[in-house]
Amino acid sequence: MRAQNLLSRPWFVAAVIGAVVVTAVEATLGTGGSGVALGLLGALVGVIALPIATQLGLLLGSALFGLRVRHVVFGAMRRVASWQAGRVTITVRALPVTLSAEIGPWRSPVVLRCWLAGLVSALAGIAAAVGAWTLAELPFGRGAALAATPLMLYKLWPRRAPMATSTGWLLFGLPRMPRPERDEFRAAPMAARAYEALRAGDVDGSRAHVDELVRQHPDLNATVSCRVSLHEACGEYAQACLLLLDHLSGRDAGPREMSYLLAGMAGLGFAAVEAEQLPPDDLLPLAKKALDDAIRLGYPEFQLSGTKGLLALLEGEPDEAARLAAIGAEHNTSPLSRADDFATLARAHMAKQDNAAARAALARAEDLAPWWPRVVETHQRLHVA
């Protein structure tokens, strides 16, 4: 991770502040170098443990109050292992310093369940900070407490950005949502079931859920997103692009929602050009702008590595396409997105005349979603080759 990205992370800023404060305190108290070292170690532990505590609280609240937990990721950097526990995918990465999860509504009442899960998350984080203060007589405890406390206050600040929702937003922002956003939340369980059916390869089952969404909530963003995903699952990239363009042109969305829509528009646009369903001269510049605008609005750039890899492939840069597609497959949590990235990786290897590597990438795609349109087409191309 680049240094400028680290400076934008609240946990890193809190670690620096905590370390400076601890160093000043220890110097004032005259505890010597060992006390300073223990204080710094405590500050580091505090900024790692506090977010993990709030995330564990959110997972516990989700289990208690009936939210859907789709994916739990422990650690950062390289993927070490991944397995299925019921409907939940658990992934372990090489650097054990973070805990994240994909959590969403599954049953009504949606708002109340999410608020209660947020409350459990806040209580877990506050308990962790209070626990650190009980050890404040020791340099290590002081470091942990001085680092964890401002970080917990930051987490209680209501924020909702692409790919991230703060504990404070669940507690204070969620109950004050205006009507359109509240309707999106209420429609989320049915949308989640449509996505789950797609993940399982049940296109007809997903279509039934989408049809019900269209009947009940025809104009919601969740409904349009499900319709777009269904078109993509059928290889109908042109229809998906046109539907999403029409939705974007008639919607005054906030930055977070717009970043998701633009990221989807970019990926679909590149796929439509690759499949020769729409003219590249018209669509490629539009899709590139959508990609840039999604990043500018806060969508994490590394999460779009697979999309950028497909663009590199379209522009005749197979080495760059392979590099980016591999990053996307490594960091994406959705099995369908990972399968798509492995399909891009296979096609990039084919463009480099390395069919053995292409077969290896395709095999990984077929392990995830053998029915996915780009996986099927890649298999056909490779078989002919």
From TrEMBL:
InterPro entries: TPR-like_helical_dom_sf. It comes from the Bacteria. Keywords: Membrane, Transmembrane, Transmembrane helix. The chain crosses the membrane at residues 37-60, 110-133. This is Tetratricopeptide repeat protein.
